[in-house]
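Follow-up to my earlier ticket, as requested here are the two runs.
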Amino acid sequence: MARKELITKSDIRAAAFEMARKLGAIEITARKLASYAGCSTQPIFRNYENMEDCLNDVYEDSLQFFDAFYGEYDKSSRVPFVNLGMAYISFAEKEPNLFRYLFMTKNTHGMNLYNILNGRTNAVMIEMNKAKESGVDSAELIFMKMWMLIHGAACMTITGDYDLTSAQTRLQLEDAYKAFTR
């Protein structure tokens, strides 16, 4: 009779994702993951051909987590790109390790920043359509201008150099959008 599998792929995947959240994806090695999951490396390599395969799952879980974070974030601003920007900056503040993994490391998963942001929710396209509906001809250009500001604020959050309140941030983003669309 075969032994019952005590540590499943799902267990390993969940432990790897939690490591990414708490310690950073760069910390995920077979030995560290095994220790974190409370097992040997054998269950890891029984379920994954190599650590790259495991990290691919962590990346996918991180994308899903960001999509869910954005989906649940308050979207009360009517000004295009502000809701997405506020959620992005908040994500950097609340999930700094996942933010670094998704948005501040060289992406080897074949996705560019636009694909990650747009996600499965079409967040960027929705915001660009809002801008076009409000009379903006070059929504893509406005998005790029806004995104440089938003990404900079999020990175400053990561480094501890950002001290604006949420209300101040919202006002800054709304003012920037108005200035860019004049």
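Run two:
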Amino acid sequence: MSGMWRLITFLYTLFLLLAAGLAAVAAMGNPEPLKYINLALSTPQNRIILGIAAIVLIVLSLFVIISLFKREPKIENIVVESNLVGQVSITIAAIKIIIMKAIKTVEGVKDIKPVVSDSPDGLVVYLHMMINPEYNVPEMSQNVQNTVKEYLQNTGGLKVAEIRVLVDDFGASNSKSTGIERKTY
């Protein structure tokens, strides 16, 4: 949010706070806010000024509502390097291709769905994967994490903060044949 929008939002919120405070005081039976409102509306000039202020607040309210529902642009690329000469970026799709190439070198992985996000410490990779049930899950996960991290750093020049692995679905045919029942949460 830019500084101008912060100022507008602050002033708008301050006005609403003042109006709510006056309404609360009037609701408690104190007649002074009502006297001030009647005094403000007693002359045609004051009514015009109050009308203009109301129109400005309505327009401001519409801008605030519209800005709340605007979506922030989705991160399409990650900055690899930025220096005096320029900037080098890599798209999320290219990072996913690098991850898929890295996974092909690991034996036992059946399927993988990578999700990539950026953090101040570097790239955060979420790997939702399916492996063969004959393999040791902790060893396989560690191997995948090391391989993907190394590939991203060497091939893409990316700084990797963390790689999270979720191993899922050890094969529908094996769970039926062994009598293990699967629960969906």
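The only thing I checked on run two: Residues 173-185 have pLDDT under 50 and may be disordered. Let me know what else you need.
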